[in-house]
Amino acid sequence: MEDDVTTKRIIHGVFGGIIVLCISVIALLLIYGKQANYQIYLQAKAISLHGSIGDTIPYQDIINVVYYDKTPTQVHKQGAGMETQKLVCADAKLENRKVRAYVYKETQGYIVIKTKNRQYIVNDETNALTKQLYQNLQTRIPK
Question: Which residues contact 122 (CB under 8 A, 6 or more apart)?
Answer without folding.
Answer: 40, 49, 101, 102, 103, 110, 111, 113, 130, 133
